[in-house]
Amino acid sequence: MNNIAIYLRISVLEKGNLGHTEDTINSQRNIIKNFIFNDQELKKANIEEYIDEGYSGSTTSRPGLDKLLLKVKQGKINCIIVKDMSRFMRNYIEMGDYLENIFPFMGIRFIAINDGYDSSNEVQNGTELDIQFKNLLNDYYSRDISEKMTTALLVAKKQGKYTSGAPPYGYLKDPEDNYKLIVDEKVAENVRYIFQLLLEGHSLNETAKTLNSEGVMTARARRKEIKGYDAYANRWESTVEDTIWSHSMVRRIANNEAYTGTFVFNKSRKSKLDGGKVTYHPKEEWIRVYDNHEALISKETFDEANNIIKSRKRNKMFKWGERKYKNSPLATYVRCNKCGYKIRFGTSSNGKELVSINLYCYHCRMLEQEEKLPYHRELEKEVFKILKDKFHTDKTEKKKLLDEQKELYDRNDQLLKKKRIEFENYKFGKISREDFMETKNQIQESEEENKERIGAIDEELKQAGSIDSLTKEIVEKYIDKIYISGKGIERIEYQ
Ligand SMILES: [Zn+2]
Q1: For residue range 187-212, what is the model confidence (pLDDT) as tens digits?
Q2: What residues make up the domain containing 268?
Q3: Which pTM does this prediction carry?
Q4: Does residue 195 share a domain with residue 135?
Q5: Residue 256 CA, ligand 1 centroid: distance in Å
Q6: Which residue stretches of 367-470 are H helix?
């Protein structure tokens, strides 16, 4: 008579998380029962259940497990089945002892379904560690390590040790203790200078411009210098902008509490499921360790600078809300011929209507290499003329094309009729098979030619349009990019 013990366990964490964990007692039971039902031998045996709810697999004394092991000692159990080995035991040394020594000695068959382990398949009934089991041990070992690592990381963070990636501009990792931040004397003064400019009332943009004109080293350039390579080299669009200061880079520095000596963590979390998706936590959940490292600026300076930025933003948003006018239809299609950057159509309004549009290349402006670009009305006029010359098809032209197409269709109808007649002539013996075949081939050739021309006209009609004014739709239909310089349009890439 065979007695099977099935062992089911969930941890405290899983218990508190009911409904969120997939590995419930029920699901473990179903998997095991299903396994037993599909095995001719096992399904004849008696089944006893041993359950531990709210116990960790590292705990050696668990009521369910204790009861089960007692039955084993009494020789009342022949087989133990679990879903995963880790459900039975998390301590791999102890687990190994059971699998290698205790169970074989007692004549117990042990099955861990998801691990693909069945002691009856083992050489000498499990007294030897085969490769499969060694892998399991490795898995145990690494799981153990990763749990320890996570805990260590959290402790390190709570102690305020810097563990997250590259340190902010103005700081370095301490070569003697990689978890500590020390001041990067080479650029620390730049950070103070940025806050000074902001406090003097310069906008983020003005601050960025000043930094560029004075050749202040950017964060990216400094990182490249420290690391010996450019970590951002192949990122599109970042390639040009990150070598110069932009308003968003200035903002990033102004917003970083690290400069007050505070270490902030728990800003985000990387999910272990979901392919490492990052979840950002609300500000209330951020954890701060004050006076963690040397401050570059005072808390007061930090707050003041951020208040100035915030009030500026509010004013700007208010103005934007009132904007009712439309920008130029070319606004997103124009690029700088010198550097390839998108030309910005700076707009200003009196709150009701558009007062002016001012074209500039932000990139060239930041490098103080700005050219005076054409006035947007001139540009629109020129583009309109080019599009009209190239694509405009007026009504008479269009009608001509349509007439030609209609004639071709008619001709093909005639050819079809002719083909039918010739076929009948052949059927009634009026013409020879050879004659019929020859005529038929001629007809088909003409048909093909006509069809080709019909298709070509279709294409032409699709491209054609009446271009009476430069609308957003027209620009979108024909234009991909327009490159301009101070001289005007340099070249146009069409759709
Ligand atoms: Zn440019």
Answers
A1: 888 898 899 888 877 889 889 988 88
A2: 159-311
A3: 0.39
A4: no
A5: 30
A6: 376-391, 395-427, 433-463
